[in-house]
Amino acid sequence: MSEGLAFARLVHALHTTLDSLPDARKGKNTQYTMRDAALGAFAVFFTQSPSFLAYQRTMQQAKGRSNAATLFGLEHIPCDNQLRTLLDPVDPAQLFPLFDVIYDALDRAGHVAGFRTFAGQLLIALDGTEYFSSQEIHCARCSQRTHRPGHVTYVHQVITPVIVAPGNPAVIALPPALITPQDGHEKQDCEQVAAKRWLESHAGRYAHVTILGDDLYCKQPFCELVLSHGFNFILVCKPESHKTLYEWIDGLAAAGDLHQFAIRRWNGRFHERYTYRYANDVPLRDGEDALFVNWCELTITKTTDGTILYHNAFATKHDIARNTVEIIVQAGRARWKIEHENTNILKTKGDSS
């Protein structure tokens, strides 16, 4: 393991970041430092134990030292209420530099290179997730969802970009983007706008990148922004939201000009048929200023009865040919890893909200 990824080095980087957290206290009661408060919260997530702090306080009283002190250098263990009082005023963005520290360490150790796929591309998947919801508790940073009877649900949402690779069970988490009301904006914030902010803030750190996302992102303004940063994209492209594009696809198919081929594969239990269709230079939307993209589709069926097991289509600026369409589709399908290997892990193995 690289020296930069040694546990002690990572803890030191954590301490450095936490020492810079702003302290909103104005009185003289500063028994607990901001570092201790943040380390206490981090330890709860790290050990996935909500009773961790109480147990550590008991251990420290009985033995004079706790695991939290040994592992993370936590000097004084605050209680849960003290944690909330100290940390609630802190902007989460204060912790985002840690993502860059870990990414740089992984890059120096050669692990990021292992995530590069075709043409040396680094696949960054974007997706939003909700981590708080209530019809009673809310704050100024909440987004609102109004229901028909007049009820309002207050939510906190975030985009959690991750680096993914087909066949790789691991992901690399990147700095998130909070979906929250923005100062000076009358419209409510949304996932696509937050994704645009993320690109503007972080795109300069990465090279040879392809952005992955669902149909929500497959809109011309977002695609053009991705291209303006020197990136490419592979985005889910559905017929109901891209009528002009699919009119072209239907026209090409009727004229016999739509590329298509099928491959028979054994999945360990039965044979499947992978049917690929693709076309280059089709308009993403109507209008003279339409962005022309390349389109591909995969349908997986049972060879015995034709049951459809999987169907999806993608828009990209990568050139599509018979020898590239499979790897492009594999890359597009890897976006699901943001759910399975990242968001679900946070929600079931650490995100206690």
In words, what does this structure look like?
With 353 residues, this protein is an alpha+beta fold. It has a domain at 3-91. The protein is 34% helix and 23% strand. β3 (143-146) and β4 (152-159) form a beta hairpin.
> Looking across the biggest beta sheet, what order are the strands in?
6-5-1-8-9-13-12-11-10
Major beta-sheet overview: 9 strands, mixed
Class derived from helix and strand content: alpha+beta
Order of helices and strands: HHHHHHEEEEEEEHEHEHEEEEHH
Which regions contain 5 or more consecutive residues with pLDDT less than 50? none
> How many helices in DSSP terms?
11
Please tally the β strands and state the result. Answer: 13
Radius of gyration from CA coordinates = 24 Å
Average per-residue pLDDT, rounded, comes to 88
Categorize the overall geometry.
elongated
Question: Which features characterize this protein?
Answer:
single chain; 353 residues; alpha+beta; nine-stranded mixed beta sheet; four-stranded antiparallel beta sheet; 13 strands; 23% strand; elongated
Short description:
By secondary structure, the protein is of the alpha+beta class.
